[in-house]
Design a protein that fits this description.
Blueprint lengths: L1 H8 L7 H19 L28 E12 L3 E6 L2 E6 L7 H9 L5 E10 L14 E12 L16 H6 L1 H4 L3 H24 L3 E2 L17 E3 L6 E3 L5 H9 L4 E9 L11 E10 L3 H15 L13 E3 H8 L13 E2 L10 H8 L3 E8 L2 H4 L2 H15 L3 E8 L2 E3 L8 H11 L6 E8 H21 L12 E5 L4 E3 L7 E3 L26 E6 L2 E8 L4 H11 L8 H7 L6 E7 H9 L29 H4 L11 H10 L7
Parallel strand pairs: 3-5, 6-9, 11-17
Antiparallel strand pairs: 1-2, 1-4, 2-3, 4-5, 7-8, 9-10, 10-22, 12-13, 13-16, 14-15, 14-16, 17-20, 18-19, 20-21, 21-22
The structure holds aspartic acid.
The site of aspartic acid has 8 residues, from strand 21 and strand 22.
Length: 653
């Protein structure tokens, strides 16, 4: 992905490393300029420079300038290339005797030292202009130079970012931040957030309100981080999101709230998760689902970087049931087809054992996906690993059918697939020569979910072999709606839990079912999906205290005392309200094409939730724990080993 990101940035350029770096810097700053606000910001106000390294052109010829930057490289003690966030500029090191001290500073300073130079902007001699460098027509004839700070031997080369491990990057994050991609990611993130604030506050009258970080345990949902207090046995919890506060703000009459909110969930990091992450958190009074969706469509359209193509609104919408049936997931990647097809009816009289078994059960189904030209691109070992995945993770069989020609079923059970089933499949899946059909059987949700995973796996395999299925420049937004309000608990399917959170309102047409068949109630929840990733979710809330009490106490069997403040607030003229939260880190990850959300966060945690730079979390001496009335109960070696082998992601990077 990094190489993909990089190739996007310097598309069409294939020059030596040093040249490439120059071009990357210039194109990064150019695209930032492209997507910046119309008013050009003053980049050198209040500081000890007159200009940035990337902004000087022929129009500045003859000007006296002062620049500050890091030494990118030096050539034959004659030229120095200076870098800041805005670009690169060539500095001519004076060779004459009176300027010997300037020459000494500039020639002796190690790479990545930070220097200040003052001098005149001059034209590069004929034949030495570099048309590919934005500052390539000029250079700086230096008069004075100051070494602001020297740089020790680096743990890795700043420009050579491709070759270092993520653990090393995180350990020296302050150096990694100097890289072109981190600069680009964080600056673009800042610009998008600025545009979002502008849209929400200036164009639509939203109020930015900060809510507490020290809070109390919330029933249900993700695991929360616990913070000891000085009161014996009492703990704060870090909020999973400002959900309760934003609803209470509605009761308080702040009818259009937003916050760039930090949220905390004690779950291991994954490429798209972090123990602490940021949401664009929004709530409105007197709104319905369409109102929230239109607001978000407008917000993304307004804040979208102009060089990433237009955002077309309204976004398409898909009921959850369809997403599950056709894509096997609640976050379908709609950039490509390969949809799941239900072929149960076609196989009612099958002689294939595992299909027969599945269909004899009340919930049994048979599902298929068709991989176009699969026979050409998939290898035997791919099919073997697909079948192993299905067996290991779903305890299900997958039957591959290779279609050399439409009549020739090259499959272990080909002889059992009757003629009419074969031609039915060809018709239903519109199969062609060289396609591969994968079949599985089982309970609807389980079979769909397996097929959904295989669909993505096959897409990755085809793309690894050069087939273009998903256009990397395409941003495919989708609303997923009509979720169930409750789901059976995994550990005890007789009991229900909220599909999202307990404050979600039931679908108006299903309210009566709440008291009779709660598992059938649809919710007023909506998820926003981008290229197969959930980037946001929200709902219309329950604003009636009695209904909220019923859901918590009777359906979910939660301890209502934990939420008595909210239930009480709903009794004091709470307006109808609803909202949404966008996951900013995931959104930025997709916009920048970064391989992980850690690449759009300045100081992220490792997979294990560690800060590899400062070594947090760290131990605290027992006497400092005393005021909190807590003691560490140290695990045995066996327990330590067990907990690290159970950890979702064992490696540090
Ligand atoms: N608080 C929810 C979440 O963090 C989003 C919402 O319902 O607005 O997922």
């Amino acid at each position: 992905m990094f190489s993909c990101w990089l190739s996007q940035l310097c598309r069409g350029l294939s020059t030596p490393t040093r040249r490439t770096t120059q071009l990357i810097w210039s194109s990064a700053s150019r695209s930032l300029v492209l997507s910046s606000q119309r008013r050009i910001p003053e980049l050198s106000s209040f500081v000890a420079r007159t200009n940035t390294c990337g902004e000087l052109r022929s129009s500045h010829l003859g000007q006296e300038v002062t620049l500050c930057g890091w030494i990118q490289f030096r050539r034959q003690n004659i030229f120095l290339v200076l870098r800041d966030f805005h670009g690169l500029v060539q500095v001519v090191i004076p060779q004459d005797e009176p300027a010997a001290s300037v020459k000494k500073i500039l020639c002796e300073a190690p790479m990545e030292s930070v220097v200040q130079v003052s001098g005149t902007v001059i034209s590069r001699p004929p034949g030495q202009k570099n048309p590919k460098m934005p500052t390539g027509e000029i250079e700086i004839k230096v008069k004075t130079a100051k070494l602001l700070n020297s740089c020790k031997k680096l743990p890795f080369e700043i420009k050579d970012f491709m070759k270092k491990t993520e653990a090393l990057r995180l350990q020296y994050r302050y150096l990694d931040l100097r890289s072109v991609q981190m600069q680009y990611n964080l600056r673009l993130r800042s610009q998008m957030v600025m545009k979002m604030r502008e849209y929400l506050c200036n164009l639509h009258g939203f109020v930015d309100v900060e809510t507490p970080t020290l809070f109390k345990r919330t029933p249900g949902g993700a695991k929360e981080f616990v913070i000891p207090s000085r009161e014996p046995g009492k703990f704060y919890s870090l909020p999973q999101s400002p959900q309760q506060f934003k609803q209470l703000l509605m009761v308080g009459g702040l009818d259009r709230y937003f916050q760039v909110a930090r949220c905390y969930r004690d779950e291991g990091s994954r490429p798209d998760r972090q123990p602490e992450f940021t949401q664009i958190d929004i709530e409105m009074s007197f709104v319905d689902q369409t109102g929230v969706q239109s607001l978000i469509e407008g917000l993304l359209q307004y804040s979208w970087p102009s060089d990433k193509g237009p955002v077309v609104v309204p976004f398409p919408s898909m009921p959850f049931a369809e997403a599950l049936a056709s894509y096997g997931t609640d976050k379908p990647d709609t950039r490509f087809g390969m949809k799941i097809v239900d072929i149960s009816d076609m196989f009612r009289n099958t002689e294939v054992g595992f299909l027969q078994d599945a269909l004899s059960k009340p919930q049994g189904t048979v599902k298929a996906i068709c991989i176009r030209k699969g026979a050409k691109y998939l290898k035997r070992k791919d099919i073997e690993s697909i079948r192993k995945f299905a067996a290991d993770h779903f305890n299900e069989e997958v039957l591959p059918i290779f279609l050399k020609t439409n009549e020739n079923w090259n499959s272990p059970v080909a002889k059992f697939i009757m003629e009419e089933q074969g031609s039915g499949l060809v018709k239903l899946l519109e199969t062609q020569e060289e396609d591969v059909v994968l079949l599985t059987a089982g309970e609807h949700k389980r079979a769909c979910s397996l097929m959904g995973k295989l669909r993505l796996e096959c897409a990755d395999l085809l793309e690894a072999r050069g087939v273009v299925l998903r256009d990397p420049a395409l941003f495919s937004f989708l609303w997923v709606v009509d979720f169930p309000l409750f789901l059976p608990k995994e550990e005890n399917p007789q009991e229900l839990e909220s599909a999202h959170h307990p404050f979600t309102a039931p679908h108006p047409s299903d309210i009566h079912l709440l008291y009779t068949e709660p598992h059938k109630v649809r919710s007023q929840h909506y998820d926003l999906v981008l290229n197969g990733n959930e980037i946001g979710g929200g709902s219309i809330r329950i604003h009636n205290s009695e209904l909220q009490h019923y859901v918590l106490a009777t359906v979910l069997k939660e301890d209502v005392k934990l939420l008595s403040h909210l239930l009480q607030a709903l009794d004091y003229g709470a307006p109808p309200h609803g909202g949404i939260a966008l996951g900013l880190d995931r959104l930025m990850c997709l916009v920048t094409g970064a391989p992980s959300i850690r690449d759009v966060i300045a100081f992220p945690k490792s997979f294990r939730g560690h800060d590899l730079m400062s070594n947090a979390p760290d131990s605290i001496p027992p006497e400092e724990l005393k005021p909190y009335h807590i003691q560490v109960s140290w695990p045995t070696d066996a327990e330590t080993e067990k907990s690290s082998s159970n950890h979702p992601c064992r490696s540090e990077s």
